[in-house]
Amino acid sequence: MADYGVSAGQFVAVIWDKSSPAEALKDLVEKLRTFTGDEGQVSVENISQLLQSAHKESSFDVILSGVIPGSTTLHSAEILAEMARILRPGGCLFLKEPVETAVVNNSKVRTTSKLCSALTLSGLVEVKELLREPLSPEEVQSVQEHLGYQSDSLLSVRITGKKPNFEVGSSSQLKLSIAKKSSPPVKPAVDPAAAKLWTLSANDMEDESVHLWPRRRTGKREVKGTGELPAQVGLWKLLPGRCLPLCQLPLPWDAGLQTWGAGAPERQQSQ
Q1: How far is the C-alpha of 259 from the C-alpha of 271, rounded, in Å?
Q2: How would you write 23-44 as a 3-class SS string?
Q3: Strands 125-134 and 87-100
Q4: pLDDT for 33-60, tens place per residue?
Q5: How far apart are CA 118 and CA 20, in angstroms?
Q6: Is the terminal CB of the chain with fewer CB neighbours within 10 Å at N or C?
Q7: Which residues contact 238 (CB under 8 A, 6 or more apart)?
Q8: Directed axis angle between helix 112-121 and helix 77-86, to 10°?
Q9: Which residues are bridge partners to 97 per DSSP?
Q10: Inter-residue contact 133 to 67 (CB < 8 Å)
């Protein structure tokens, strides 16, 4: 039983068909029950009734099919899919089946590669061949009687496959390495005192002594193609006999801003 990975406490299913000798089947089941113990379980199922069985999915740790000495069981795609369904995630299937070594068209007996492909299509992984050996005289006779097939190029092959560690339809979150987007630059907080300084109240706007005049900036760099220097806007308060500058604001270049307003204070025009 160590060849099948059976241990104490496991649930094992043994699949048989009409080609399986009854005594050999009974002997195999007794040996399996010795290995699994009281906490385990060994179920015996005829392959022709497997699709109608009431086994829930993920019921067995190990499934053995066609491994009974003298059996010549063939496994259809539906049977393989059902075995994969009732296997627990991580469980193993061990099967034995006669295979053709020659290329025969429309043969009911598959080649080893086609049998491995059928196991893979049923949803099993890590499918591999364990043993290949000639058919015994009893098995050759069984193929002829139960399968109605005769060939001199038949072998018996043992293959195993494993159910993935997840159920069909289950989901799992994938951990993807994605660079985090850079955070947008945070605007600096406005100093309340500065905001108050640069804010005009309604009273200021109605004050006729407060005026906006453009002002030439000193410097050697002229605006290209104009001969003019960049400008600023000055906020001035007219007092008796003098102009009091309140603040100066830079202006972007605009040809329309190059005409200096008439009536600007002489002190402002000279700068």
Answers
A1: 16
A2: HHHHHHHHHHHHHHCCCCEEEE
A3: unpaired
A4: 999 999 999 999 999 999 998 899 999 9
A5: 23
A6: C
A7: 209, 210, 211, 244
A8: 50
A9: 157
A10: no
If you write DSSP's letter for every residue of 192-251 in order, what string do you get? HHHHHHTPPPHHHHH-TTEEEEEEEPPSS-PPTTT----EEEEEEEEETTEEEEEEEEE-
Cβ–Cβ under 8 Å, residues 91 and 162: yes
d(CA 44, CA 256): 98
Residue 137 backbone dihedrals phi, psi, to 5 degrees? -55, -35
Place of tokens 């002594």: 209
Task: To the nearest 10°, report the CA torsion of 131, 137, 141, 143.
Answer: 10
The string of pLDDT tens digits covering residues 108-139 is 899 999 999 999 999 999 999 999 999 999 99
Q: Collapsing DSSP states into helix, strand and coil, what is residue 21?
A: coil
Residue 249 three-state SS: strand
Query: In the sheet where 231-239 sits, what is the strand order?
Result: 210-216, 231-239, 242-250
AA identity, residue 151: S
CA pair distance 18, 27, nearest whole angstrom: 16
Q: How far is CA 70 from CA 31, 143, 204, in A?
A: 17, 10, 110
Q: Which tokens in the block code for residue 218? A: 């000193």
Q: What is the pLDDT of residues 4-18, one digit of tens each?
A: 889 999 999 999 999
